[in-house]
């Protein structure tokens, strides 16, 4: 296996990219970035210097993964979703601080969502399209809206879990995720 870089992709010689990863048109991968195996890096994606991306990650078109963001294995980043890394941006400020953000294994972020930095998107969590995330999203939880709020638990397959922790879509059971319809926390 090897890496597929589109002719127009710009991948720094100082970046490392795992086997089987595909990097599409006009994507840019900066120096010191580390991308795992079997990822798909879409058109116009920007991976900042020093960023770590796990294996099996899918990044849809027009996503920028800025310094301070960590993306674990099997994460899905929907088209045009936006990360941030500066909580109090000023164009004229020379001293600014990166606030880290973490997207844990198997989590998905819907199209056009905005992640305000300093949060953790938990394992297999899901963020709805267009959400503005300002607080941590617990593992196996769907959060939607602005500001994003948890609405219900989700299965590893992405569908809603019943109150008994059973998935009506794939039949998987997650008894420790038993809950009411709506998250109260
Ligand atoms: C959030 C999501 C997972 C919910 O899907 P679902 O379980 O099928 O939910 P439903 O469509 O039955 O909607 C349930 C309720 O949530 C609302 N809702 C659905 N998606 C929403 C979103 N992104 N933001 C806010 N509310 C949303 C619906 O309007 C509905 O509200 P109602 O009960 O008041 O009528 C889905 O709508 C979504 O946003 N998926 C991400 C899609 C995406 O960005 N894909 C990227 C790759 S193309
Ligand atoms: Zn399921």
Q: What does the secondary structure layout of this molecule look like, with pairings?
A:
Blueprint: E1 4-5, E2 10-11, E3 16-17, E4 22-23, E5 28-29, E6 34-35, E7 40-41, E8 46-47, E9 52-53, E10 58-59, E11 64-65, E12 69-71, E13 76-77, E14 82-83, E15 101-103, E16 108-109, E17 114-115, E18 120-121, E19 126-127, E20 132-133, E21 141-144, E22 149-153
Coenzyme A (COA) binds next to strand 21.
Describe this entry's structure for a reader.
The chain has 185 residues and is mainly beta. Helices cover 0% and strands 28% of the residues. The chain contains no helices and 22 strands. Strands 1-4-7-10-13-16-19-21-22 form a nine-stranded mixed β-sheet, with no helix packed on it. A six-stranded parallel β-sheet has the order 3-6-9-12-15-18, with no helix packed on it. It has a four-stranded parallel β-sheet with strand order 2-5-8-11, with no helix packed on it. Strand 21 and strand 22 form a beta hairpin. It starts with a strand and ends in a 32-residue tail after the last strand. The model has no long low-confidence stretch (mean pLDDT 94). Bound molecules: coenzyme A and zinc ion.
């Amino acid at each position: 296996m090897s890496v597929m870089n589109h002719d127009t992709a710009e991948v720094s010689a100082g970046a490392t990219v795992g086997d089987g990863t595909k990097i599409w048109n006009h994507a840019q991968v900066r120096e010191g970035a580390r991308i795992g195996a079997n990822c798909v890096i879409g058109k116009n994606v920007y991976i900042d210097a020093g960023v770590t991306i796990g294996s099996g990650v899918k990044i849809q078109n027009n996503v920028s993964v800025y310094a301070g963001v960590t993306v674990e294995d099997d994460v899905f980043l929907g088209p045009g979703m936006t990360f941030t890394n500066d909580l109090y941006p000023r164009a004229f400020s020379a001293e600014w601080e990166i606030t880290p953000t973490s997207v844990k294994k198997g989590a998905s972020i819907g199209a056009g969502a905005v992640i305000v930095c300093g949060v953790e998107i938990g394992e297999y969590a899901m963020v709805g399209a267009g959400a503005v995330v300002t607080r941590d999203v617990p593992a196996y939880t769907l959060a939607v809206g602005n500001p994003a709020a948890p609405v219900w638990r989700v299965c590893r397959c992405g569908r809603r879990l019943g109150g008994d922790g059973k998935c009506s879509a794939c039949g998987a059971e997650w008894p420790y995720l038993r809950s009411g319809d709506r998250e109260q926390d």
